[in-house]
């Protein structure tokens, strides 16, 4: 905004606004900073916000990084995240495209059928019984399939397809392309931003998912990172994750917080992309007919 | 057609049926594409609906859904007459309402501050950092909360001890658990919730601010008379949407944060359903409670949508 001669009240206003923003920044960052500080805590020191760098100890990280349990959980997480995105995006695109075509007979009915599941949920137990009856308990298919399609994402994608100029598809059809070819060669190349956005939506949800693995999986070796982190934090199985005399190498609270940092890092690495596409995504997400 | 014969109804519907069949056949590739998604919804969303009938049966896994004996409303009555009914409902509503009441004002304030500040760098930094917690799993936030609130080495309790006060077991005390749930949600989601309000502010015609400034309106008056009216529609929409899902008090969050000592204040409908159903194998009772919640939720969201259409002119779906 233009800086003109400001009245005193306006200066006060600007000062108040900026102070509030700095306050938000502090409240957001201090807890995360403190987690990092505790993770670097050496023995015999009490945690502090201002642990000087020459006292930092990376023993907790060294401990965790060599734990096979952590590596297996990381692989499990990667598998669930990327496998899930692949399945979810495929199903979402394949359903969204036909439903974006206004002339499709029965389209309104099918959209209604899908929308109803958005409004009414049969609940946890009936869904659990389906997964059980399908014999999917304790397999990754339970986690991958149960939450595969989000109605919200489906409707966002459908809205996007509807916004594409029809003349392009029309031209391809006149050239003899069938619907499948139109989707592959005309629609999808134009949809990269929305595919990335929705893919990230699914990816973040999968990476953070801890409840469905707990609900459907019983084999501990199948558990992804968030479940392992929860076990470490509740202190149930610290001994399992930190073998032998290793527990003496770093204080327990440093181990816990180092685990928090390690599991947050991948998210921080992709965060610039997430931020770019999510903020766009939340605004195109006007899910309306 | 021959005008001598008045057209009879039969050929006409037969013709339109033929027309429809031809149209369906012409779009067969599209239906084929729809098939996997449709199967997904039928299996994972409609089959559970069928299974939900065990709310009215006494489900025994060996007999299956269809073979278990009917008991009518027994499970519902048991739930309504139990002591935990009011407790669950109160916990769910208190936590939900507090999240709405304490969550929306900071989000509006943040959006207005981001919109008003003349420091671009500060604005960008705050946006980047305040959206971040939204993308963290509740398990990670639980770790952060432990670092802040743990009675032994948590930052806040170190502060209390430095002031000569007794440390407070925030996560395991019935007096503090609900505030922790509500405030941690506010910490995690304020930045993200501000986006919608910020978008509404950015869509206000800048000429309004310029005209007001020329007329001598102070910055605060501009916020009061231009910015706030500009976000009322979004505010109404957000509040209605939240009321529509008021029975969702944050299952994943509470599932991670709560523990036996705070069940009396932290147990919500969803966490109770999980424990009774999955851990205690009370499938029918848990399904009945889940169904009760689903039906109320459906009514609420439909009413909220009607209201949104009437007052804002646009619905939630």
Automatic annotation (TrEMBL), chain A:
Pfam families: BPD_transp_1. The chain crosses the membrane at residues 12-36, 78-97, 109-131, 143-161, 182-205, 254-274. The keyword GTP-binding does not apply. It comes from the Bacteria. Residues 74-274 form the ABC transmembrane type-1 domain. The keyword Transport applies. PROSITE patterns: ABC_TM1 (PS50928). GO terms for biological process: transmembrane transport. One of its GO terms (cellular component) is plasma membrane. It is a multi-pass membrane protein. It is found in: Cell membrane. Keywords: Cell membrane, Membrane, Transmembrane, Transmembrane helix, Transport. Its main location: membrane. InterPro entries: MetI-like, MetI-like_sf. Belongs to the binding-protein-dependent transport system permease family. This is Inner membrane ABC transporter permease protein YcjP. It comes from Calidithermus roseus. The lineage of its organism: Bacteria, Thermotogati, Deinococcota, Deinococci, Thermales. The gene is ycjP_2.
From TrEMBL, chain B:
Gene3D superfamilies: MetI-like. PROSITE patterns: ABC_TM1. Keywords: Cell membrane, Membrane, Sugar transport, Transmembrane, Transmembrane helix, Transport. One of its GO terms (biological process) is transmembrane transport. Pfam families: BPD_transp_1. Coiled coil: none annotated. This is Putative multiple-sugar transport system permease YteP.
């Amino acid at each position: 905004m233009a800086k003109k001669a400001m009245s005193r009240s306006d200066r006060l206003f600007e000062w108040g606004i900026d102070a509030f923003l700095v306050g938000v920044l502090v409240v957001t960052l201090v807890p995360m900073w403190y987690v990092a500080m505790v993770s670097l805590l050496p023995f015999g020191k009490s945690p502090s916000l201002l642990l000087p760098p020459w006292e930092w100890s990376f023993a907790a990280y060294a401990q965790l990084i060599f734990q096979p349990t952590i590596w297996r959980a990381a692989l499990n997480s990667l598998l669930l995240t990327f496998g899930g995105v692949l399945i979810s995006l495929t199903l979402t695109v394949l359903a969204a495209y036909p439903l974006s075509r206004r002339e499709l007979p029965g389209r309104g009915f099918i959209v209604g059928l899908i929308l109803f599941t958005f409004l009414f949920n049969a609940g946890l137990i009936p869904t659990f019984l389906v997964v059980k009856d399908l014999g999917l308990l304790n397999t990754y298919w339970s986690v991958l399939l149960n939450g595969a399609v989000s109605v919200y994402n489906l409707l966002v994608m459908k809205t996007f397809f509807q916004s594409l100029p029809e003349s392009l598809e029309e031209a391809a059809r006149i050239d003899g392309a069938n619907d499948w070819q139109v989707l592959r060669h005309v629609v999808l190349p134009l949809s990269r931003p929305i595919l990335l956005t929705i893919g990230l939506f699914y990816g973040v949800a999968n990476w953070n998912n801890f409840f469905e693995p707990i609900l459907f999986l019983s084999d501990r070796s199948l558990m992804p990172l968030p479940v392992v982190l929860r076990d470490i934090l509740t202190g149930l199985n610290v001994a399992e994750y930190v073998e032998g005399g290793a527990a003496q190498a770093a204080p327990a609270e440093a181990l816990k917080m180092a685990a928090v940092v390690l599991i947050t890092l991948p998210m921080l690495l992709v965060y610039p992309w997430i931020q770019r596409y999510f903020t766009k995504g939340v605004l195109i997400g006007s899910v309306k007919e | 057609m021959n005008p001598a014969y008045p057209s009879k109804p039969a050929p006409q519907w037969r013709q339109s049926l033929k027309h429809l069949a031809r149209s369906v056949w012409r779009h067969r590739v599209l239906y084929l594409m729809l098939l996997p998604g449709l199967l997904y919804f039928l299996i994972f969303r409609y089959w559970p609906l069928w299974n939900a009938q065990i709310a009215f049966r006494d489900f025994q896994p060996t007999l299956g859904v269809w073979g278990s004996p009917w008991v009518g409303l027994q499970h519902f009555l048991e739930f309504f007459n139990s002591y935990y009914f009011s407790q669950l409902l109160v916990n769910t509503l208190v936590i939900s309402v507090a999240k709405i009441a304490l969550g929306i004002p900071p989000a509006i304030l943040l959006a207005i501050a981001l919109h008003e500040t003349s420091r671009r760098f500060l604005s960008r930094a705050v946006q980047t950092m305040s959206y971040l917690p939204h993308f963290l799993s509740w398990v990670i936030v639980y770790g952060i909360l432990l670092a802040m609130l743990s009675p032994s080495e948590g930052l806040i309790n170190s502060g209390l001890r430095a002031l000569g006060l007794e440390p407070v077991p925030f996560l395991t005390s019935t007096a503090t658990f609900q505030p922790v749930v509500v405030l941690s949600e506010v910490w995690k989601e304020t930045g993200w919730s501000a986006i919608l309000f910020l978008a509404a502010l950015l869509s206000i015609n800048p000429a309004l601010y310029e005209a007001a400034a020329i007329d001598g309106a102070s910055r605060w008056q501009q916020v009061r008379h231009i910015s706030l009216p500009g976000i009322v529609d979004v505010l109404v929409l957000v509040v209605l949407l939240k009321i529509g899902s008021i029975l969702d008090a944050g299952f994943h969050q509470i599932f991670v944060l709560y523990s036996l000592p705070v069940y009396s204040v932290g147990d919500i409908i969803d966490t109770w359903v999980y424990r009774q159903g999955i851990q205690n194998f009370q499938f029918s009772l848990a399904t009945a409670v889940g169904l009760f919640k689903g039906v109320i939720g459906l009514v609420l969201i439909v009413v909220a949508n009607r209201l949104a259409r009437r007052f804002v002119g646009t619905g939630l779906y």
